[in-house]
From TrEMBL:
Top-level taxon in the UniProt lineage: Bacteria
Keywords: Kinase, Transferase
Organism field: Sporosarcina limicola
Enzyme Commission number: 2.7.1.48
Positions of the Phosphoribulokinase/uridine kinase domain: 2-143
Protein known as: Uridine kinase
Chain coiled-coil ranges: none
SUPFAM superfamilies according to UniProt: P-loop containing nucleoside triphosphate hydrolases
One Pfam match: PRK
Signal peptide extent: none
Class of enzymatic activity (EC top level): transferase
GO terms for MF: ATP binding; uridine kinase activity
Keyword Transferase: yes
Length: 180
C-alpha cells in the first residue's frame, strides 16, 4: 500500500507522516523533497519563481520509475536510488529495499497532481489555514534568512504555486481523508 500525506507548505506533513509510520509497523517513509532537482534546474531564471516551484522542483519521472511504478505493479524494489543532498546540492546514491507488501508513506506537497495521484492507494490531505502555515514556516525555515526573507520567498514562490495546485487539482476533493 502506498499512502500519500499531502498538504501545503507548513501544514505539518513530515510530523504527521512520522507519527503514522510509528503506528504502522514495518512501514517505510519517503519525503518528496528527497526527489528534487538541483538548484540549477529548479531556480531557472527564465521562469517566474512560482513556476519553478510548481513545474521544475521535483523529479517526478524519476520517483515514478524507481519507486512508485514498481510498487504499484506489486514488485519489490531493490536498487540504488538517488536522493537529494540539500547541504551539497547534489544527488547521493543509496541502496533501497522495499519488500512486497510493505506499506510505504510518501509525504510532500502537490502529491495529487495528475502524474502522481494514480500511484497512491490512499491520500491524507492536511488542511491548515495560510496564516498558521506562514507562522510555522517563519519559525522553521531559518535557513532562508530573516522573517522578511522567508515571508518574501513564500509570497513569491511557494504560495502562488500552491494556489495553482489548489485550482488545478482540487486536492481537498481528491483526498481520501482530510485532517484539519
Amino acid at each position: 500500500m502506498i499512502i500519500g500525506i499531502d498538504g501545503l507548505g507548513g501544514s505539518g506533513k513530515t510530523i504527521y507522516a512520522r507519527e503514522l509510520q510509528q503506528q504502522i509497523g514495518g512501514s517505510m517513509l519517503f519525503h518528496l523533497d528527497d526527489f528534487i532537482h538541483t538548484k540549477k534546474i529548479r531556480y531557472n531564471d527564465e521562469f517566474e519563481e512560482w513556476y519553478g516551484y510548481y513545474h521544475l522542483q521535483w523529479r517526478y519521472d524519476y520517483l515514478i520509475e524507481t519507486l512508485l511504478r514498481p510498487m504499484k505493479s506489486g514488485l519489490c524494489v531493490n536498487q540504488t536510488v538517488e536522493f537529494y543532498d540539500k547541504e551539497n546540492d547534489c544527488h547521493l546514491r543509496r541502496c533501497i529495499e522495499i519488500p512486497i507488501g510493505t506499506t510505504v508513506i510518501i509525504e510532500g506537497v502537490f502529491l495529487q497532481r495528475s502524474e502522481l495521484r494514480q500511484y497512491f492507494d490512499f491520500v491524507i490531505y492536511l488542511d491548515v489555514d495560510k496564516e498558521t502555515r506562514l507562522k510555522r514556516v517563519v519559525e522553521r525555515d531559518l535557513y532562508i534568512g530573516s522573517e522578511e526573507e522567508i515571508t518574501h520567498k513564500y509570497e513569491n514562490r511557494y504560495f502562488p504555486a500552491e494556489e495553482t495546485y489548489s485550482e488545478k487539482c482540487n486536492p481537498l476533493a481528491l483526498a481520501d481523508f482530510i485532517q484539519k
